[in-house]
């Protein structure tokens, strides 16, 4: 399922194969959620490298023709969670250095954002073990904008 994007360390609603720190190991959460309950809405377990591979392939036309990707990036007038704008899948957001495009997600104990500049010359994936929704965005801002 993830092979076309070169995502070899990503699972969907299965047993996570990603190694490293987790909110459960560092004591933030007593009971890990059953990822199968979330499926694509939080059930994807991945590495920052694989998320970057996905967006690099998507934005370069490796998964869809570039003309379709550019259509996806155009604002539709809807607003995700009261901030930014929404394309046909990607969010259009703002960091301290200007507009960015990508997406984010969270599940209890975990947050991730993946942002790229509109010209796709710079990108960042930030993952944190925290329920603090702004922490990943702040990390992305520092990395992409400083």
TrEMBL record:
SUPFAM superfamilies assigned: beta-lactamase/transpeptidase-like
Domain Beta-lactamase-related: 2-134
InterPro entries in the cross-refs: AmpC-like, Beta-lactam-related, Beta-lactam/transpept-like
Protein name listed in UniProt: Beta-lactamase-related domain-containing protein
Recorded superkingdom: Bacteria
Family annotation (Pfam families): Beta-lactamase
């Amino acid at each position: 399922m993830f092979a076309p994007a070169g995502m070899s360390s990503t699972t969907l609603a299965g047993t996570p194969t990603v190694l490293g720190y987790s909110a459960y190991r560092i004591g933030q959460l007593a009971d890990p959620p059953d990822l199968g309950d979330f499926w694509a809405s939080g059930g994807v377990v991945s590495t920052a490298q694989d998320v970057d591979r996905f967006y690099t392939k998507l934005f370069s036309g490796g998964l869809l023709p570039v003309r379709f990707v550019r259509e996806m990036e155009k604002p539709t007038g809807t607003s995700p969670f009261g901030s930014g704008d929404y394309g046909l899948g990607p969010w259009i957001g703002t960091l301290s250095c200007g507009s960015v495009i990508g997406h984010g997600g969270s599940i209890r104990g975990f947050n991730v954002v993946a942002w790229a500049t509109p010209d796709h010359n710079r990108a960042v994936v930030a993952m944190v073990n925290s329920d603090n929704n702004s922490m990943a965005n702040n990390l992305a801002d520092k990395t992409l904008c400083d």
